[in-house]
Amino acid sequence: MAVREIDIYGDLNYYEDEDDWFGSGSDEIDDYLSVEDGFYKFSVVDDKLVVEVPVKTIKNFPNMHVDEIDESFLSVLDADNKYIKNEKGEDVDLKLENPEVITTIMSSAVGDKNTLKFSYALLGETGILEQIENFDISIDLNLTKSGTSQGGSDDWDEILDDYEKYADEYIACAKKAAEGDLSAMSDLVSLMETAQELGEKLEQASGDLSSDQVARYSRITAKFASAMSDM
Prior knowledge:
The protein is an alpha+beta fold. The protein has two domains: about 140 residues, no CATH class; about 80 residues. Helices cover about 35% and strands about 30% of the residues. A hairpin with a 2-residue loop joins strand 7 and strand 8. The longest helix is centred in the C-terminal third of the chain and has 25 residues. It is elongated, with a radius of gyration of 22 Å. The protein starts with a strand and ends with a helix.
């Protein structure tokens, strides 16, 4: 089916820790994720209305722990751009069936795509599928700082800071060198020394990485690899 004007909305809510009820700020989810207009196949499988939607990361998520997925659903709209309702007069909202993908999205590099899977139990109701013209997606996440180094060591936080700085500087220099900037070549030589120092820190680091530290490491590595493949 052809779908137009797809929207994704919601909030990233920041908290100091899981006991912080008031929060310390928020961002709009559409600053980080986008959904392309196009063709999406809504189907009825085992009396469920189902659809899969790829979402693209357009900005790196903050290095924080997902404390709670507050809301995550897909709402369908008709030809008049009004929310479709069921026989009880309630909005037809499809539930996110693979919430574990949120963790992957949080550590994805810019340009990566991940698939959200949604479903709605029809309970024998008919006619909903034929009404669908558009849809929008709502995602609200509560993030906490306490998960950043929990289970990992402070050594790894410092090393990951150095790794990300090195990756950003190397990518910038490599782009200049590829464009013929001779001064960038000498900067790349200097960065090789930085890479050696970083390697030594990796060998001397103590403790295991937390799940969030592993995710951050993967995100930096993916960003590095993606930038290099584009040159």
